[in-house]
């Protein structure tokens, strides 16, 4: 890890500590016996703080797990699994997760990880994240303003949009791009993150000129830039199974784009793709196989891509729309109200 990365990490830890202290102070002052406390796993320190507070002040504690800490630090290369400090922190957070009355997970693979951390199965509840299927509608990439601006509207465009970070397996994807044979394939990256400079460097060096990069775009442009492709790329690096679910998948599905998922076959998004036939999956450490799959997708008849995109849209509406997921939360809080009245 470079000097700049270390300084940035220290600043983030300091920021999280300050935020967590404010959370603890507010919780200590305002949370009363028999209250219902709903928390998320960011910043991570709040998990431990609420677990400690709950030990001497009885309240209903619901934890929404977006991340699994500290295992995600190992996957990001920020901690060593065999180190003494990591093992101590892991024991603390395993205990902290297990103190919640309910733990909401956003993926089945995440539920398995939490069981291994000591969370009882009866306390786990699967509620995925949602996408805005009313605001994001499928449109043709052939007329997309971003693709027209870049002059690639008639190519087979593979879009990576979002955080270009350490755990996304960007090097694996970039290696695969160098192995792709199809002259129709182009790759558009939209976003920022720790690996964005690596993408820009390969863009400058690419002899095939098949990599394009745009800086992060405002949220109100999301319906346009999510439609700037034929296929949406969703990728996670190795050792990320169960540590997070790339929920941007559901937004690309809302845009009617089939998914090219680079991740482990028993992860949540891979399972959705297999169940709904709305894309393709490849393991995260096989760039040659990934390149072959991209070539295969480029050779598919247009109606095959269209059918996969339509399946993605149907799945987003059926399983991941705002209405569907909000109803799941409504059922949860209704059940809590009934328990309180008993």
TrEMBL record:
Domain Glycosyltransferase subfamily 4-like N-terminal: 20-130
A single GO BP: lipopolysaccharide biosynthetic process
Signal peptide boundaries: none
Domain Glycosyl transferase family: 153-314
This protein's UniProt keywords: Membrane, Transferase, Transmembrane, Transmembrane helix
Keyword Membrane: yes
Stated name of the protein: Glycosyltransferase involved in cell wall biosynthesis
Transmembrane segments: 36-53
Keyword Methyltransferase: no
GO MF annotations in UniProt: glycosyltransferase activity
Pfam families: Glyco_trans_4_4, Glycos_transf_1
Organism: Victivallis vadensis
